[in-house]
Amino acid sequence: VRLVESGGDFVQPGGSLRLSCVGSGFVFGSQYISWVRQTPDKRLQWVASIWHDGSQVRYRDSVRDRFSISRDNAKNTLYLQMDRMKYEDTGLYLCAIECGTCESKDVGHWGRGTQVTVSS
Fold it and tell me: How far apart are CA 33 and CA 7, in angstroms?
């Protein structure tokens, strides 16, 4: 299993970024996938998840009206569109499968992450 994130960058408050996660080594279209961020103090925060077919999505309350998770199973790719970004969105963004509540990297499969920094 391999998950590779990209798209992280520095962005000003109110700005936008689009993250991508490419999966390989498993049947991408069969997996429920999540975005999780690791905050500067190393806490893991679940951000969003999407059903294997994209029919349902779930969001952390603090990002619900600003972020959008989507996937393209033909390209084995997961996306996270982040708009109206805030300082507290800063962190290392990782995609993960089979992670349960995604509170520990010891459960499931994780990518290495892509860094997002919101700063003026």
Answer: 17
Q: Each residue of 53-62: pLDDT tens digit?
A: 999 999 999 9
- The DSSP call for residue 61 is G
Q: Which two structure tokens, joined as six digits, stand for 104? A: 């520990």
Beta bridge partners of 93: 37, 114
Q: What angle do CA 90, 78, 38 make, to 5 degrees?
A: 25
The SS3 assignment for 28 reads helix
What confidence score (pLDDT) does residue 99 get? 94
CB-count exposure of residue 33 (10 Å: 0-12, 13-18, 19+): buried
